[in-house]
Fold:
Amino acid sequence: MSTIAVIANREGLDSQALLASAAEEWQKAGARVAGVVAEEDHDGPCSAGFLCDIASGQKYSIQLPEPPAGTICHLDSDGVAEASAGLMRQIADADVVVLAKFGKLEGMERGLWRAFSAAIKAGKPVLTTVSAKHAEAAKKRLPDAEWLDGKKEAIAEWWQANHPAQRS
Structure:
């Protein structure tokens, strides 16, 4: 099994809730979890308005009030980069790294890519999600990743393979 696990987003799957639930279970079991999960901004135009740091609870805004000229995307790449930078000091001591998603920015080696890269170089298990439109970029940048279905059992099995001494 790979130390990198990717959950393919699909209709009806709340992948961020899966990530948050897994992180919470691992923390309760004594694991040091670094990472961010996306949280909704019910007042904003996009489903994810914030990235929430799992360890500290700090929220990073990732949504622009207006999209830049020539685009319809409200994603604030500076906010995503700030969240990634905030994780850099946590990765070395982490038992696992949970990253909200691999998306357009990460495909261009921006956004959360710095945290992905640091975790992979440090040999840390990484759990993330990806949408169908960014799956090919994820396969290119994360060629050794194991693709999981969006079920708790699949995540638990991956966790056991990467942390046999810790039980979820």
